[in-house]
Amino acid sequence: MSYDYLFKYIIIGDTGVGKSCLLLQFTDKRFQPVHDLTIGVEFGARMLTIDSRPIKLQIWDTAGQESFRSITRSYYRGAAGALLVYDITRRETFNHLASWLEDARQHANPNMTITLIGNKCDLSHRRAVSKEEGEQFAKENGLLFMEASAKTTKCGRGFHKDCCKDSSEHPRWCL
């Protein structure tokens, strides 16, 4: 199938925050409760129609382990956006966001759109990071923000609906 635009997004964040589950929900509209750790990078794609234009969205799911950070860095090239994911039930994943953001800003296009995603909002009874803290971090760093659940898809509208690209090269696309 042909497309008018191709957008590459990279999913980054600590191991176990649900990056692979978000990818699977986006590409296959399903949730897999037990998922193997990502080794290096996994890839998924989906065709969307936005404003009557066919768009191909590629999502690159990166390994969150420190030992794979050097591999992950090479995938920033050519990315229109990054999805910076933390687990709302694990404070340490939120505490590591600054390091992930620094990597993204150092290795990616300076105009790349970055969306902060607080994942696992279906587990709000185990919340360790408030929504307000996520919103504040996003505001302080010029990021888009949303909370999501790869499991229920009921929090937010799904990252593909809210990750918008606004640049001089392309019109505004709400994915």
From TrEMBL:
Annotated signal peptide: none
Record GO terms (molecular function): GTP binding; GTPase activity
Protein name per UniProt: Uncharacterized protein
CDD domains xref list: Rab2
CC terms in the record's Gene Ontology section: plasma membrane
PROSITE patterns assigned: RAB (PS51419), RAS (PS51421)
UniProtKB keywords: GTP-binding, Lipoprotein, Membrane, Nucleotide-binding, Prenylation
Functional description taken from the UniProt entry: Intracellular vesicle trafficking and protein transport.
Domain of life: Eukaryota
Subcellular location: Cell membrane
Membrane-protein topology: Lipid-anchor
SMART domains with a match to the protein in the record: RAB, RAS, RHO
Family: Belongs to the small GTPase superfamily. Rab family.
Organism: Medicago truncatula
